[in-house]
Sequence to fold (414 residues):
Amino acid sequence: MNTVNQITLNKLLNSNYLKTRENNNDPKLKIGSMLYHILEDKKFLQRFDENKDNFIEPTEIVSIIKKQFQHLPENTAETLAKGFMKHYLQIFFQQHPGSIKNYKHYDEIVNTVKQLNQEYPNFTEIINLGKTTEGRDMIGLKITNPNSKNTKKKIFIQGTMHAREWAPAETVLNIMSTLLKNKDQEEISNILNNCEIYLLPVANPDGYEYSLNTNFMWRKNMYKKDGKLIGVDLNRNFHIEEKPELYRLPEDKPDRTDDDIGASDNEYSDAYRGSAGNSEIETRNLLNFIKNKKIDAILDFHGFGNMILYPKNDKDKVKTYEIVADKMNQSIGNKYWIEKDTELYPTTGTMISIADALGTLSYTIEIGSNFFPTKNELEILKGETYELTKTFLKEIMKIDKKIISHYKNTDTNS
Fold:
């Protein structure tokens, strides 16, 4: 490390709000230990968590450094931020050995889905929502009893739209396999007789692989501009012509970043909404699927926070949302917090807000207490999410279809 960076690093380590509680003179260990502690400090998070996702990303660390030290040489802040994240993640995975091994790569997930289809060919069908930015197939599974002549509710369950949220992919896979293993039980048989369940373990395959292999904290997809990786937050990219304000509020101008509300026009933000609504192929694939299948209800699994979130709505629909959310929460011992997503923090362009506007009852489920649950934590989450999903399916079966109305299919490339 050169002299300038060493001096700057020493200033950082001795500053009031970036002070480590560890007595160790090794700068690398002090960096990692410092970051480990500040990421657990709620006041620190509230002050510097610019995109309000309850985590401090490299771009936010760069912002912190630049605000604190305004005379840094070019690229020094970026270099220090990368060092912070590298050593924080090294320490995290040292403290949680085997965490990475708990998670499948995307091709392994696809193979698992195909194996389930082969094992239960009469109850399953492979679904492919389309290609991703890098050409991967968005593969999932449809589960139902094809012999049932009942009018069926159509349910969409997905995970890992944000690349670094690994656990949702595993939990959706577990929901698939557990439903199929128990298909002959009366409770599950009744669900499969009355529901068509579409499950997509990974909504952002490209970003997920990049997170597993290269940058643990990557959140976005793999959109590139002039050959440079930028990425778009897929869950800020959804748009419909009928309600453009759900993608961008009128006072939020696209040619500025200082007025951003609910998403960002800064390409380097983790909450970058993209150059336009539905600019990303993954977003268009998801939205077209929801519209074409006339999906009645959605569970969108994210990590983390132990929350059940639903879109802002009118009083009558809020009552329905709250009843179903309460039932889901009761099924797991009331462990989760129930909230309107916009009351947690402002968001625009989310899948559940757009789906709700299309008449689809939609929830975001924030599972767990960190991005990378350990093996034991992951097993607990699998059990909880299965029980929550089973309750969700039973509650959706009770809801009159008249409550759920759909717009006619419109062009999602707008």
Summary: The beta strands are 124-131, 137-143, 153-159, 195-200, 224-225, 228-229, 297-302, 307-310, 337-340, 361-366. Residues 375-398 form the longest helix (24 residues).
